[in-house]
Structure to design on (175 residues):
């Protein structure tokens, strides 16, 4: 889609949601992950799209697929990149380049259920999450581009899950 097409689509959706805000709330497409043996898992979307994951060889995997942690970082980076592109289109900014790198640090001891020497459990969560945005738009002031990125980050759904510490409801069916 062109920048104009994206902007027009966003305007149409916003107009509908101003008239009928209840239409904004919807169930997101679930991701279904099925174990394939070992540490390999295939996650599927209702559309048929699939993504395989596996752990690195150090943790018993084959190392030939991306890890679930990498998919998490890819989701962060992809979501923010998409929001920036959409907001740029809505503001009439023509981007020449846009790249978002999401990184983090993790302690493998956490996934293994290990503890520090004092008995404190090591967290399996990603730590020190960083997102680095590189973009350019000829003829657009740098401050306007920075504002675009900050606004997009504040309204980007995947990073918002981390920022809001959204609770997760866990249901277990056995058998």
């Amino acid at each position: 889609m062109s920048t104009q097409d994206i902007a027009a689509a966003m305007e149409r959706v916003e107009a509908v949601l101003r008239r009928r805000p209840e239409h904004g709330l919807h169930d997101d497409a679930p991701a279904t992950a099925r174990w394939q043996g070992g540490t390999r898992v295939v996650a599927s979307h209702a559309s048929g799209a699939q993504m395989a994951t596996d752990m690195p060889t150090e943790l018993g995997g084959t190392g030939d697929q991306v890890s679930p942690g990498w998919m998490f970082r890819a989701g962060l980076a992809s979501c923010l990149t998409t929001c920036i592109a959409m907001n740029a289109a809505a503001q009439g900014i023509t981007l020449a380049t846009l790249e978002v790198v999401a990184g983090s640090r993790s302690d493998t001891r956490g996934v293994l259920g290990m503890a520090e020497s004092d008995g404190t459990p090591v967290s399996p969560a990603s730590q020190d999450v960083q997102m680095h945005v590189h973009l350019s738009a000829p003829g657009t002031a740098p401050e306007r581009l920075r504002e675009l990125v900050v606004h997009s980050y504040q309204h980007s759904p995947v990073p918002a899950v981390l920022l809001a510490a959204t609770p997760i409801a866990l249901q277990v069916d056995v058998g």
